[in-house]
Write a structure and sequence with these properties.
ATP-binding; Substrate Binding Domain Of Dnak, Chain:A, Domain 2; ATP synthesis; flagellum; proton-transporting ATP synthase activity, rotational mechanism
Length: 449
């Protein structure tokens, strides 16, 4: 009797694991309805659908009684009603490692650079993770040199800070991002290109990032033609890879271009699931997902590394108060505004110094540096107010000494901030130059820096 039970147990152990599957009931655009997964389906679960002899990866994004609403990670070609849909255990995970440096992956962590398969990393990490508890997080660290004079002087970046780059189209946002990717001091850079133009990806790697920049970077790419689910997933994967290096004790620079396209992808997903459009067509889930994504960057727990985040925001029609820009600005630790007016004047990077804010000020600069920064901002503000009056010839020199000084020094400060994309800056030298412009005896002030 015991032998029979042992034989039966051995046979049962050799049986294949239980496979849960349903059937495709309908497809409406990119939304696929799957029946037969009652009590097994859960939001966020991965599913593979048989389509024309191949397997189509999808995710369950909504549930309606006994119907699971799924969105695919690629175009659902060859999909037919009645096709078998296999439910995979758990949610999608990745296994990053240091061998990923210099590689380019898609939103699911699969290599797309033609350099062969990626080596298996350590423990699996969820692509969508929770940020460290607020009470367990370290504080923002010391100032980081970005190599961009306008930022180092007027909107400095610190270890673990999250800074937004807000700009309309064609103002130099991508070029500024490439300068930051090459010159910002960090151990590892994780770059997420979410919804980017396909032709620009290789240009960014070869022309902007370069071999040295690529060697210390991991790129996560989902171009504009990718389905909404893949674009959203690319943003999550970017943060998941950054978290792996953060947990290893490294200072990670996380660059994402752009948060706006992540929000657009989430809007498409929400509308497909039947969410009502709210502010300017964006669904409520967009404004719920933005803080969940952005809060994952920042300082780690005590003893861990930090993720310094730079997130670009493509403002709709140049309106910096549109819903996504307004929501992101309230979450991040500072914002840098790129002005079309400044770009039209030929000064790049076209950073609007008077509208840009770093919430780590004034503590991240020395008292002497803060004094210089404050004095320069006041001069630039006065120069901007009087610029039109001077151009019209309505101001007479000598009427106001402060205005005379602003008219004389404002253009010199603006010229100092002009910087080519192949011209790395030095923060200490930039403060010394600013002191030379502002103070009659700048050399004495330079020693105080």
């Amino acid at each position: 009797m015991r032998a029979s039970l042992a034989d039966a147990a051995r046979i049962i152990a050799q049986l294949p694991p239980t496979s849960v599957y349903g059937r495709v009931a309908a497809a409406h655009g990119s939304l696929i309805e799957v029946e037969g997964l009652l009590r097994h389906a859960s939001i966020g679960a991965h599913i593979r659908i048989e389509a024309d002899g191949d397997l189509l990866d999808a995710e369950i994004t909504g549930l309606d009684r006994d119907v699971a609403h799924c969105l695919p990670f690629c175009e659902p070609r060859g999909l037919a009603v009645g096709a078998r849909a296999h439910l995979c255990a758990g949610q999608e995970t990745i296994r990053p490692s240091r061998a990923w440096l210099g590689r380019m992956v898609d939103g699911l962590g699969r290599p797309v650079d033609g350099k062969g398969p990626l080596p298996m990393g350590g423990a699996a990490r969820p692509m969508r993770a929770e940020p460290p508890p607020a009470a367990a997080r370290a504080r923002v660290g010391a100032r980081v040199e970005t190599g961009v004079r306008a930022l180092d002087l007027f909107a400095p970046l610190c270890v673990g800070q999250r800074l937004g780059l807000f700009a309309g189209s064609g103002v130099g946002k991508s070029v500024l991002l490439s300068m930051l990717a090459r010159w910002t001091a960090c151990d590892v850079a994780v770059i997420g290109l979410v919804g980017e133009r396909g032709r620009e990806v290789q240009e960014f790697i070869e022309d902007d990032l370069g071999p040295e920049g690529l060697a210390r970077s991991v790129l996560v790419v989902a171009t504009s033609d990718a389905p909404a689910l893949m674009r959203r997933q690319a943003a999550w994967t970017t943060l998941a890879v950054a978290e792996y290096f953060r947990d290893a004790g490294l200072h990670v620079l996380c660059l994402m271009d752009s948060v706006t396209r992540f929000a657009m992808a989430q809007r498409e997903i929400g509308l497909a699931n039947g969410e009502p459009p709210a502010s300017r067509g964006y669904t409520p889930s967009v404004f719920a997902e933005l803080p969940r994504l952005l809060e994952r960057a920042g300082p780690g727990r005590e003893g861990e590394g930090s993720i310094t985040g730079l997130f670009t925001v493509l403002v709709d029609g140049g309106d910096h108060d549109e819903p996504v820009a307004d929501a992101v600005r309230g979450i991040l630790d500072g914002h840098v505004i790129l002005s079309r007016h400044i770009a039209e004047q030929g000064r790049y990077p076209a950073v609007d110094l008077l509208k840009s804010v770093s919430r780590t000020l004034p503590h991240c600069l020395s008292p002497a540096q803060n004094a210089l920064r404050t004095q320069a901002r006041a001069l630039l503000s006065l120069h901007g107010d009087m610029e039109e009056i001077v151009r019209l010839g309505a101001y007479q020199a000598g009427s106001n000494p402060q205005v005379d000084r602003a008219i004389a020094l404002g253009p010199r400060i603006e010229e100092m901030l002009r910087q080519g994309k192949d011209e790395p800056g030095d923060a200490q030298a930039a403060f010394a130059k600013l002191a030379e412009i502002l103070e009659p005896q700048g050399e004495a002030h330079e020693n105080a820096l």
